[in-house]
Amino acid sequence: MQNKKGQDGFSLIELLIVVAIIGIIAAIAIPNLLASRRAANEGSAQSSLRTIHSSQATYQATAGNGNYGTMANLLAQNLVDGVLGGVGGTKSGYAFVVNKVDFVAGTSAATFSATANPTITSGVSQTGTRKFGIVEDGVMHGLTTALGTPMTAAELAATSNVLGN
What we know:
By secondary structure, this protein is an alpha+beta fold. Helix content is 40%, strand content 18%. It has one domain (12-163).
């Protein structure tokens, strides 16, 4: 019997075609994956602001004696988690800032504002396309402009871009 020399394995052309197909699939999938990550970060930021809002109501009624708390106050009372209330207040690509004004008898009511701003505002690794804010009334506000600057109390009060609950 005579042995036939067969061709074992794949040719270089076949391997190059497979690599090209994988590259095309990756080029289609990666932008969608990044957009999904940004959307998840934005959803997490909105949820975290709602958590801060409910934590502020609890703090005001208990330990705050009518006043709202700082992020450190909320963390000390175990009303927010260590990631949200930790050093820097960043979670899921967003930086959180809580501002408060204490109650002054006969002059002003206690108020607070909480904002969430994307930590990376442009490029492939952008963490969000909107910045968010909430005040004591519990209405969530969002802006797509000036992402590089944190949402201010004035922007929060002036924006008509109200997000549905």
